[in-house]
């Protein structure tokens, strides 16, 4: 049996404009608001609550669950002043995180009703925290080469009479300046693509040309370690996107394959059709990535071995750029790796025209083993 208490009276029993009905039009306004909305009557009972307010656990039955919010509503009812505040509600279900709300509480009508609007701030807080972390990381990354440059400049000044030392330190200055340039370039690329802006010049991109161009740009570094870059797979495939961004992403993958592989190994870049997508993979015979780090390698500035990354001129942003380029194209990037054996990174990109088919092209550049 269900006990019916007086407060459970159906709203239709209540005369218009009494303290238990909403002022005219309020219900329709509340229905279109994106925030969690709650209307309390003069006895603090919930007259109306949006489904979001119930889902977040702010309201149960006809009770407002947050004591802090209830106190605020009472203050507003007493003096009629609109109040704003921020507060946190513990996850009301197991495993659920706490939710931070920005609330605005205002008097409603002349019957002691109070309107509570609560905006979920969790995502905004998370984004702010990520941004703060990012700025701290960038400052730290910039400080190292800038500090080194300043020290080297001092050393050169002191060694002005020693041309051999001056030449040596000037070379190191060039090296640090190059590091700074790479970092700034990567930061610019990253900020351009992760802003969620549309791809600059989308169109039909021949995969063979992207592969050829990316290999071309990595050849010098590969040759210095006697690493052979090999292009293979299906020729004539086309994807939808921006050629320059795709070359940047693929070049980053090949750069890493070279940087994290021992001398005299092979790096294979291969394309293949896979239904609606084209898969472009870069496989190396390098040091591999520990399983525990696999989930984090696409994070900005995450490195398995910071010293090794810096020694190879890495900025810690390469894979974050790859991930964002893939996402901006409606694609994704996956990784397989085994420590001591090697790694394979696979870009999956939407095929031009919706289906991946090889189109023989007279203008396509022949793929060949590059040294
Ligand atoms: P970095 O500039 O440090 O190379 P990335 O974002 O490109 O930054 O890569 C992040 C980290 O992932 C690297 O520091 C390295 O530890 C690891 N990593 C990336 N690619 C490879 C690879 N092919 N083989 C082994 N480790 C890799």
From TrEMBL:
Domain Histidine kinase as annotated: residue spans: 137-353
Principal EC category: transferase
Stored Gene3D superfamilies: 1.10.287.130, Histidine kinase-like ATPase, C-terminal domain
Signal peptide: none
GO molecular function: ATP binding; phosphoprotein phosphatase activity; phosphorelay sensor kinase activity
Record keywords, A-Z: ATP-binding, Cell membrane, Kinase, Membrane, Nucleotide-binding, Phosphoprotein, Transferase, Two-component regulatory system
EC number: 2.7.13.3
Broad class of the protein's primary localization: membrane
Source organism superkingdom: Bacteria
Biological process according to GO: cellular response to phosphate starvation
Spans annotated as Disordered: 1-20
Reactions listed under catalytic activity: ATP + protein L-histidine = ADP + protein N-phospho-L-histidine
Family matches, as CDD domains: HATPase, HisKA
GO CC terms: plasma membrane
SMART domains: HATPase_c, HisKA
Subcellular compartments: Cell membrane
PANTHER family referenced in this protein's UniProt entry, alphabetically: PHOSPHATE REGULON SENSOR PROTEIN PHOR (PTHR45453:SF1)
Name the record gives this protein: Sensor-like histidine kinase SenX3
Organism: Sphaerisporangium album
